[in-house]
Amino acid sequence: MRKKRSAQVAIVATGMILVAGCSAVSEPAPDTIVIGMDEDSTGPGASYSIIVGDTVRAAVADINANGGINGRRIVLEVGNDESDPTKTPSVIRRMVDKGASAVILATGSGSVMQAKAVLQRSGLPGVSPNVLVDSFARPPDEQYAFMVANSLSQYAEVYCGAFAAEKYTRLAVLADSSAAIDGVMATLEPPLRECIEITKVEKADVDAADMTAQVSRLLETKPDAILVASVGGHFEILAHDTFHKNAPDLPRFSLASIGNQPKSWALADRGALDGMVFMGSLTEENPRTVELAEMLKPAKGSGYQPTAYDAQALDAVRLLQEALGSVADPQDREAVRNALENVRSLPASFGQSALTLSYSPTDHLAADSLCGLVLMEFGPDNVPQGPWRSYQPSCAGEAQ
């Protein structure tokens, strides 16, 4: 009996050692800096998260090829929460255990918002290249949460300017039912309602095979324009195909997703995207956007067309590079956070050439003005043909 009990104790003790070993904190090599990345490579946000993740890898490779940060090589520690907010905390905690100095959040908005509190508790700075929900970088618990792209409240300001320019007064919305878009609409819808009547909001599953019923109900409200809010991919194309068949002359607007997913354009029916206006962030007059295209050629091919996700991913890495390069000890996460808050006027890879990125202790939204946003219009060949001529946001003054 005594032998059996001793064996049981030994098994339990061994199990405890294994558990402890799994959760042990790793110490990075002295000549390296660990940066974590939560990349949603298999969830509903994969269509844009993979774009971000690949560009982060390219940017890190470029930095390492040029001597790293103060002679230290960057090591990426990658996790995947599948845009499932319930999985986000474990991914972030793993980054902490791996000794990450900061983390890049290339995942869905719902997961990014879930990460906010975990970053705060862990004392780990997190930069999101693609989140648009500005509450991520606003109080409470915003001390370790940093954004790169212009926020949804700024999207709403630009949309409202566009609707006013065209004298649209009635807007109908078709949204996918993902957690990411639920978060987007919770932020975007209230300010839109202040400038235009939203006649109806219809939702459909991300993998819906038919949207005829939803589109019919929206058209019955006789809107002046349509807004499609989705993570892109199959949903976005099906939505525009359906609207094109049922109301080809009705003006349509979209979020940024469709403009950042070139592989999706070829899946649309002929002319289905013609005239559709989406929220873009790239313009050829920005020389850093041209530099981005050159940097991506080895990783993504000479014919690759950069997206806003690429530009914002690169800028997320550069913001961290700036901060990490200014601290004595990259393992001091509090020092890294403070250094991020002192990044000023970093020229952006997206938006107009005048756009710069800055942080401060009271502002964790990087874009310094609305000119990080460019309304872009698709042409008859289902390819973006350039900036929309009817309206563009001003580049003057600071973003509010």
Description:
The chain is α/β, with parallel strands linked by helices and 400 residues long. The chain has two domains: 32-150 and 286-368, Rossmann fold (3-Layer(aba) Sandwich), CATH 3.40.50; 152-280 and 374-387, Rossmann fold, CATH 3.40.50.2300. Helices cover 40% and strands 16% of the residues. The protein is built from twelve helices and 14 strands. It has helices at residues 2-22, 46-65, 88-97, 109-122, 152-166, 179-193, 212-219, 233-246, 262-265, 287-300, 308-324, 333-340, and strands at residues 32-39, 73-79, 102-106, 126-128, 145-147, 170-176, 197-204, 225-229, 252-254, 277-280, 346-347, 356-357, 374-378, 384-387. The strands form three sheets. A seven-stranded mixed sheet has the order 7-6-8-9-10-13-14, sandwiched between helices. A five-stranded parallel sheet has the order 2-1-3-4-5. Strands 11-12 form a two-stranded antiparallel ribbon. Strand 13 (374-378) and strand 14 form a beta hairpin. Helix 2 crosses helix 11 (308-324) and helix 11 (308-324) crosses helix 12 (333-340). The longest helix is centred in the N-terminal third of the chain and has 21 residues, at 2-22. The N and C termini lie far apart (73 Å). The model is unreliable at 1-23 (pLDDT under 50).
